[in-house]
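Repro:
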Amino acid sequence: MSAVITVNGLCKSYGAHEVLKGVELSVHTGEIFALLGVNGAGKTTALECIEGLRPYDRGTVHLHGRVGIQLQSSALPAHIRPLEAVRLFAMWNKRRPDPAVLDALGIAELAKKQYASLSTGQKRRLHLALALSADPQILFLDEPAAGLDVEGRQALHGLIRRLKMQGKTIVLASHDMAEVEELCDRIAILDGGKIVFCGTPAELTQKVGRKYRVFVQTNCGAETFETENIGETLLVLLEKYRRSGVQIADIRVGRGTLEEHFLEFAGRKDV
């Protein structure tokens, strides 16, 4: 696959504080790519430098294709109506609004409202519609599901999948690890100003090590065990309870989540 985004040696400082220390990454055509990091890791700074919204000190950034951007926070004139904003942006980009996109984001439902009266979730939906007004080949989404209800989140995820099927490349920053695991082809973890991991969610799990949690409910109470070898652990536990005469009421096995793997990896100092 060809790279539509290539970043080499990206550095950015605020005074004496060096936020980005030589970020290296590439994003392929048609993939959904997530940039992750703990709070303060520099995700938003990195995105804004890559998008061209913030100057950087050193390094190179190459984008191949039209770009659409949904910022983490943005604003429009208080009295503009959503459809007016969509038509204005479409006219500026010399394109027609896409009815399928507007329908998926529920923009028609907001027709009579003014921007100032929209909820946070409604504003997020409108901002995404505006980001798509230029029919971009590369779409940047910073916390796209923030403020959305369950129905709005499902509609957004469906739209993102349709955009991927159309060959668009999507780069997102998100704190919602379930969202990242569900949607993304690859993820990069930013830590200490550098990319410390880049690969698929499955590769991250393999690198960190699969962790399982075993929840056991007995007539004496509940216990939780953590293990990497689920088969051996279950055999040992069953034999332990049999010998002690404790009755098992329920056993549940939960695998480690992407969030747990991310937090463990981001906190490691030996990578």
